[in-house]
Design brief:
The protein is of the alpha/beta class. It is about 35% helix and about 20% strand. Helix 2 links the parallel strand 2 and strand 3. The radius of gyration is 16 Å and the shape is globular. It binds glycinamide ribonucleotide.
């Protein structure tokens, strides 16, 4: 399966995905990295790995669907069959779900539905929660919302600030997200309403039901 990875930032999740692909564990090829920001560090990582890139700036004066359509077209030009959002900080319009039905994944740094949006780590600290985590989910029309594939808890420790907590969360993201993408690319995930089956943590190569 050919996938497009959509990014806005540093691209540490992209690096983990590329490492998994390079090790032959992803079962998918990163056909293109699409960024809405020309300066995103993720683009440098793609260049280093020899993966094609597309920069598709988000135009604030254009409708969400028009921006989404340009992003989808960039992915489709490279033969992508699925979109993998990795630190992509825009909200895709419904046209994306129409073009890539049940084929858009996102990683988010909280245990959704807690703390959706761009300040998930800060809000976990402000809220005083003792446990936060990572969610990987299929994308629907709402922000950080859609059928949940996998979640893993991460403790909030005394003295944490946003940087230390985010680093602990990202260590989990970098392991969990490629495992979910591998299960998806292998055709093992089944979506029924809010419920996703077929992913068994730590058993990415194992299709056996438990
Ligand atoms: C990741 O922690 C990801 O979970 C988060 O942005 C970070 C991107 O890091 N995504 C969201 O907050 C989506 N709402 P990266 O660019 O180093 O992969």
């Amino acid at each position: 399966m050919r996938i497009a990875v959509l990014v806005s930032g540093a691209g540490t999740n992209l690096a983990a995905i590329l490492a998994s692909a390079g090790a032959g564990e992803l079962g998918a090829e990163v056909a293109v990295v699409v960024s809405d920001r020309a300066g995103a560090g993720a683009l440098d990582r793609a260049h280093t790995a020899g993966v094609p890139t597309e920069v598709v700036p988000w135009q604030p004066r254009q409708a969400r669907d028009a921006n989404t359509e340009r992003l989808c077209a960039a992915a489709a030009r490279h033969g992508a069959e699925a979109l993998v959002l990795a630190g992509f900080m825009r909200i895709l319009g419904p046209v994306a779900m129409q073009r890539f039905p049940q084929a858009i994944l996102n990683v988010h740094p909280s245990l959704l539905p807690a703390f959706p949006g761009a300040r998930a780590v800060e809000q976990a600290l402000e809220g005083g929660v003792k446990v936060t985590g990572v969610t990987v989910h299929f994308v629907d029309e709402q922000v950080d919302h859609g059928p949940i594939v996998a979640q893993e808890a991460v403790p909030v420790l005394p003295g944490d600030d946003a940087a230390t907590l985010h680093a602990r969360i990202q260590a989990v993201e970098h392991r969990l997200y490629p495992e979910v993408i591998a299960a998806f690319a292998a055709g093992r995930l089944a979506v029924d309403g809010h419920h996703v089956t077929g992913f068994y943590p730590g058993r990415a190569g194992d299709a056996e039901e438990r």
